[in-house]
Amino acid sequence: MQKDRLKKLYSFALIEILIASGLMAALLLFLLRFYAETITTDKKIEEAREETVARNFLYTSIRHHFLQLMPIQEKIPLPLYTDEKKALHLSYHNDIDLDPAFSGPIRAKLYLEKRQFILQLFALEDEKKTKKIILEENVHKIDFYFFNPQKCRWEKSWDLHNSFIPPLCKIVLEKDHRKTIFTFSIPSKYDIIFYQANS
User: Fold this and answer.
1) pLDDT attached to residue 1
2) Which terminus of the chain has fewer Cβ atoms in its 10 Å neighbourhood, N or C?
3) Has residue 39 been placed in a domain?
4) How far is the C-alpha of 136 from the C-alpha of 49, rounded, in Å?
């Protein structure tokens, strides 16, 4: 009789241990899955943060050049125009540079070469002296758009012989099958007024 009682007691304890082990395994599996998802989410957040910082840096770098536009040569009366190779030419005041040749009024060119988005600076005194700054790597395509307030539309090029500077410039970079759009306001004789559409 005592043996039967002990058998029942041990068998009951064994069932409890198996149930507890199953519950612990399920709980551990849930916690491990949650931990893995947390690591993946943290990684995505860090990548998004790095991308945002890089985009802000690129925007700030280019914006400086648009804000300082000025005609610096009589033969080139317009400080912003595009050429047949889809490069954007700028003339502006570069403030102070580590190299005195690139301080003050200079010419520059924004273009795509070997999947690199490049800003090339040209010294005014010596046109052969240049400096290339790689703004972005692995860029597949670049497009420039200029808002023409007289025609109320975006244009893909801006001719040197236009009588005014466009008030807005849009740069579209295609990288890793994603488009990144930067829009810059440019000091112009045309003021742009933005209206909010009724919803």
Assistant:
1) 56
2) C
3) no
4) 17
Query: Is there a domain that residue 77 lies in?
Result: yes
Q: Which residue, 151, 124, 121, is CA-closest to 134?
A: 121
- Contact status, residue 124 vs residue 106, Cβ threshold 8 Å: yes
Domain-located, residue 49: no
Range of the domain at 161: 68-185
CA-angle at 62, arms to 95 and 78, nearest 5°: 70
Distance between CA atoms of residues 118 and 125, nearest Å: 22
pLDDT at 191 over 70: no
C-alpha–C-alpha distance, residues 26 and 95, integer Å = 65
Q: Total structural domains in the chain? A: 1
Report the alpha-carbon distance of residue 173 to residue 184 in Å, rounded: 14
- For 114-138, what is the HEC assignment? CCEEEEEEECCCCCCCEEEEEEECC
Q: How many CB atoms lie within 10 A of CB 87?
A: 17
* In a domain? residue 72: yes
> pLDDT tens digits, residue range 149-161?
888 899 999 988 8
Q: What is the pLDDT of residues 115-148, one digit of tens each?
A: 999 999 998 777 788 999 999 999 999 999 999 9
Token reading at 133: 């700054």
Predicted pLDDT at 101: 85
